[in-house]
């Protein structure tokens, strides 16, 4: 793990990159990284995030500034700007069930080719996908999902990069921290090694590439 | 009693002690208000919490304690938090005893459509498909009709949420079950006759010999 400034971290992300962002309706989202993505005008992003948050908050800022060209998400109904950009084909949107979304990312981070889920069998979601029967039950084959970058927000990060999360801001963060080539983390509090007890570490330090410094 | 309160109060009677329950947005959210205080029910919020509590007082909200809509909530003593993989593992894995969702259409076979109106409303399905596919019991809480049109239809014309039939539909006029594979009228709302229910229901209903009035 390397401690870097928010400017240095975002400078590593090229326009057009695939980026996973943690958070659920903007809760548990690394706001400082998103603000810097906007400031450095990174465009054509392929965004993987549970939802589109709301204008002005979380990944909503990326839609305000029209920086997204492709979105993989589960729900964008609370962001009218993202909806409008989808309906005018300004962004390509892949809407998938939330359980499938998180399991595809988990698979991507765990070396699996994909997962078999009963969710979506016989619905629009099944179109173009392989259905596989296991013990007489039908499942959809859903392929693994990875990204070049994961932007993760934690409650605590120690000097090595061990992470712990708070309440409902955990959501997709620890799963995404497994599923990207480069993992960049902001934390509410950066603490000395040992403050997070081994049993309370959720994301182990070796998964974290860059920790954003305070200030 | 307004229709939403009636529906929420009736659905609350379906919850049992120790149940892990997931409530959707809209009428389902109201159900929590009518669970008896002595009944120990665990409410799950799919963004990663079991043990959701009431909305905190003004000024006491915490930015990292929210419901699936991103609104502030509280956590009851004994609550637990987890990531989204665990949350949907609970849902798909059959650990959630009851899910209560809103509906756009339910058909004569119990199929639910509740996530999209193609060309008009395309918000994404969020957790709805996983909940209907995986929860042990699926209860739909919705108005019987919208703008004079029955929401209980012979066959769903809107895209299905799941091919797995729901267990129960509670409306402002009736309780309908699907135990026999076909929509069956189980109860009528107070002051509503069987004939009135049939008149606003497009789907064929199986009418048992005895149809009691909803106990609220």
From TrEMBL, chain A:
<dbReference type="Pfam" id="PF01144">
    <property type="entry name" value="CoA_trans"/>
</dbReference>
<dbReference type="GO" id="GO:0008410">
    <property type="term" value="F:CoA-transferase activity"/>
</dbReference>
<protein>
    <submittedName>
        <fullName>CoA transferase subunit A</fullName>
    </submittedName>
</protein>
<dbReference type="InterPro" id="IPR012792">
    <property type="entry name" value="3-oxoacid_CoA-transf_A"/>
</dbReference>
<dbReference type="InterPro" id="IPR004165">
    <property type="entry name" value="CoA_trans_fam_I"/>
</dbReference>
<dbReference type="InterPro" id="IPR037171">
    <property type="entry name" value="NagB/RpiA_transferase-like"/>
</dbReference>
<keyword id="KW-0808">Transferase</keyword>
TrEMBL record, chain B:
<dbReference type="GO" id="GO:0008410">
    <property type="term" value="F:CoA-transferase activity"/>
</dbReference>
<comment type="similarity">
    <text>Belongs to the 3-oxoacid CoA-transferase subunit B family.</text>
</comment>
<protein>
    <submittedName>
        <fullName>CoA transferase subunit B</fullName>
    </submittedName>
</protein>
<dbReference type="InterPro" id="IPR004165">
    <property type="entry name" value="CoA_trans_fam_I"/>
</dbReference>
<dbReference type="InterPro" id="IPR004164">
    <property type="entry name" value="CoA_transf_AS"/>
</dbReference>
<dbReference type="Pfam" id="PF01144">
    <property type="entry name" value="CoA_trans"/>
</dbReference>
<dbReference type="InterPro" id="IPR012791">
    <property type="entry name" value="3-oxoacid_CoA-transf_B"/>
</dbReference>
<keyword id="KW-0808">Transferase</keyword>
<dbReference type="InterPro" id="IPR037171">
    <property type="entry name" value="NagB/RpiA_transferase-like"/>
</dbReference>
């Amino acid at each position: 793990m390397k401690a870097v400034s928010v400017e240095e971290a975002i400078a590593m992300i090229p326009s057009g990159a695939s980026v996973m962002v943690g958070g659920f309706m903007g809760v548990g989202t690394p706001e400082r990284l998103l603000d810097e993505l906007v400031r450095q005008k990174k465009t054509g992003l392929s965004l993987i995030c549970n939802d589109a948050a709301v204008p002005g908050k979380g990944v909503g800022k990326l839609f305000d500034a029209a920086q997204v060209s492709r979105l993989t998400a589960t729900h964008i109904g609370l962001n009218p700007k993202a909806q409008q950009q989808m309906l005018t084909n300004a962004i390509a949107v892949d809407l998938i069930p939330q359980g499938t979304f998180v399991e595809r990312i988990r698979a991507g981070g765990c070396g699996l080719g994909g997962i078999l889920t009963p969710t979506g069998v016989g619905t629009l979601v099944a179109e173009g996908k392989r259905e596989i029967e296991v013990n007489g039950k039908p499942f959809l084959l859903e392929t693994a999902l990875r990204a070049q970058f994961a932007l993760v927000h934690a409650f605590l990060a120690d000097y090595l990069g061990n992470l712990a999360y708070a309440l409902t801001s955990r959501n997709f963060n620890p799963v995404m921290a497994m599923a990207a080539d480069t993992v960049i983390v902001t934390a509410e509090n950066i603490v000395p090694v040992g403050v997070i007890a081994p049993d309370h570490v959720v994301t182990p330090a070796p998964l974290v590439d860059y920790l954003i410094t305070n200030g | 009693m307004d229709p939403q309160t009636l529906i929420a109060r009736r659905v609350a009677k379906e919850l049992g002690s120790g149940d892990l329950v997931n409530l959707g947005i809209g009428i389902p959210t109201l159900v929590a208000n009518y669970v008896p205080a002595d009944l120990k029910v665990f409410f799950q919020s799919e963004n990663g919490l079991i043990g959701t509590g009431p909305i905190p007082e003004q000024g006491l909200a915490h930015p990292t304690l929210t419901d699936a809509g991103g609104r502030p909530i509280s956590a009851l003593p004994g609550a637990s938090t987890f990531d989204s993989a665990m949350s949907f593992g609970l849902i798909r894995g059959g650990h959630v005893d009851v899910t209560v969702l809103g509906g756009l259409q339910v058909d004569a076979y119990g199929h639910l459509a509740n996530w999209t109106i193609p060309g008009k409303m395309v918000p994404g399905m969020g957790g709805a498909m996983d909940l209907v596919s995986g929860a042990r019991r699926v209860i739909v809480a919705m108005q019987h009709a919208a703008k004079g049109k029955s929401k209980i239809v012979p066959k769903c014309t809107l895209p299905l949420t799941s091919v797995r039939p729901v267990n129960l539909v509670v409306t402002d006029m009736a309780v309908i079950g699907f135990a026999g594979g076909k929509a069956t009228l189980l109860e009528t709302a107070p002051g509503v006759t069987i004939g009135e229910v049939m008149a606003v229901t497009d789907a064929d209903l199986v009418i048992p010999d005895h149809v009691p009035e909803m106990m609220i």
